[in-house]
Design goal:
single chain; 464 residues; 15 strands
């Protein structure tokens, strides 16, 4: 397996620290609101990374934090006139609901920042004792000049980090690029006691302490959106490696941006969509297909046209499974022929090449063609193709609720057939062929469908 490592800016052979056990961390939500569709991309993609490692037989210790104390939560608490704790509890619940709706498996650990305040204070004190941090008027800052490798992830130089959009002028800092480890509390804000006075930890410190507590000083993979490379992940590296002297993470993975109809998503452009609203319009698998149909490092454009294509693609898969009566045999153990096993190899080759889900989906389409081609392939091979398509699809998070979804597809198909029979009956009535019109009515009634003739239409309902 080869993974593109942001740290080296190239693909590298993946060698886990402990064979058979993968330790990975992904930056999770700041729970001040419902997460937006851009946030959904890393949550969903790293769910697939975790699924694939498990599919290969690895134990995966997957950690995704929850930031439940932050300036944004404080601002939201003022807007909603609720406590910060009430705000965090509300949106943590929503986060779990929405990720479940997207078929995203819960992480092994979802640590909350507020559960780690004591360990964060101890961590910051150690940085101060070793000369990497300093206190000024109740705030504690990390001195980037003391960590000689600062900038190695983002490839930025300290001297280039001028006071500007990302680094606000602060006369208390020795260097404009120094970042906050501990924030002095303002009136009315949540606060914790510390050696520097009452306050709360900075965001960059939260992730370091939680990840290292659960995964160790060094672990395999750290993921997140491309926008987190700097300053967040850069600052994580600086703190962690300043204390341990060891690489914090061996492979840094970052997904590309999401645009909306060709423009960057922003509230000012009124194209800011929360995932919860998108789920009202599109099925979870449609959303998953949309994101996974593009390589994770590439930008992707969210628009109705691409979403409809994704919906049609998933419908195509389910139509094939319905037509082959998949539910009649899908739980049976099937011995795959070499011809079908070759598709599993193609799938693995794609995923092993920096998680190329777009190519992996192409393999599902090839299997789908076999399922549908009853003229060229035997029923035995077509069944094997159906089993393989669902087996590999589940690695991508598809076909999770296959029983209910195929049943829904079957019910939809049955409805279409009933409506077609009603049209035939209407034609018979126009031709005054009452015998055939009555036969359709009576035969439908025998299988539990009653036709009701109204003035301008015929409706049907299920009967016991």
């Amino acid at each position: 397996m080869r993974i593109y490592n942001t740290l080296s800016r190239k693909k590298e052979d993946f060698v886990p620290i402990n064979q058979g056990k993968i330790k990975m961390y992904c930056c999770g939500p700041t729970v001040y609101n419902y997460f937006h569709i851009g946030n959904a991309r890393p949550f969903l993609f790293f769910d697939v990374v975790r699924r694939y490692f498990e599919y290969l037989g690895n134990e995966v210790i997957y950690v995704m934090n929850i930031t439940d104390i932050d300036d944004k939560l404080i601002d939201q608490s003022l807007r909603e006139k609720k406590s910060v704790q009430e705000i965090s509890q509300k949106y943590i619940k929503a986060f779990y609901e929405d990720t479940k709706a997207l078929c995203i498996k819960p992480a092994v650990f979802h640590p909350k920042a507020t559960e780690y305040i004591g360990k964060m204070i101890k961590f910051i004190k150690e940085l101060e004792n070793k000369g990497f941090a300093y206190e000024k008027d109740g705030d504690v800052y990390f001195s980037v000049e003391e960590f000689k490798e600062y900038g190695k992830l983002s490839h930025r130089k300290i001297e280039d980090l001028k006071v500007g959009a990302r680094v606000k002028a602060n006369l208390n800092k020795k260097n404009p690029a120094d970042f906050t480890l501990w924030k002095k509390a303002k009136a009315g804000e949540p606060e914790w006691g510390s050696p520097w006075g009452k306050g709360r930890p900075g965001w960059h410190t939260e992730c370091v302490v939680m990840s290292q507590d659960l995964l160790g000083e060094s672990f395999d993979i750290h993921g997140g959106g491309m926008d987190l490379q700097f300053p967040h992940h850069e600052n994580e590296i600086a703190q962690a490696e300043a204390l341990s002297g060891k690489p914090m993470v061996n492979y840094w993975m970052h997904n590309g941006f999401l645009n909306i109809n060709g423009e960057k998503m922003s509230k000012s452009l009124d194209n800011f969509f929360i995932t919860r609203d998108i789920l009202k319009e599109y099925e979870p698998e449609t959303i998953r297909f949309f994101f996974l149909s593009k390589h994770y490092r590439s930008p992707i454009d969210f628009n109705d046209g691409l979403m409809e294509e994704s919906r049609n693609a998933m419908a195509n898969f389910y139509n094939s499974l319905t037509n082959i009566s998949f539910l009649d045999f899908w739980k049976d153990d099937i011995e795959y022929s070499p011809e079908i096993l070759e598709f599993e190899k193609k799938f693995k080759d794609s995923m092993n090449d920096d998680f190329n889900t777009a190519k992996s989906i192409a393999t599902l389409f090839e299997l789908n063609k076999i399922i549908r081609n009853e003229n060229k392939y035997s029923l035995k091979i077509r069944k094997q193709a159906a089993m393989m398509m669902t087996k590999l699809g589940r690695v991508l998070g598809f076909f999770e609720n296959i029983d209910s979804l195929i049943k829904a597809e079957t019910d939809h198909l049955s409805g279409d057939l009933i409506n077609l029979l009603i049209e035939y009956r209407n034609d018979f009535k126009v031709d005054k062929n009452w015998k055939m019109a009555d036969k359709i009515r009576n035969d439908l009634k025998k299988i539990g469908i009653e036709l009701i003739d109204k003035k301008d239409e015929v409706v049907w309902k299920k009967i016991l």
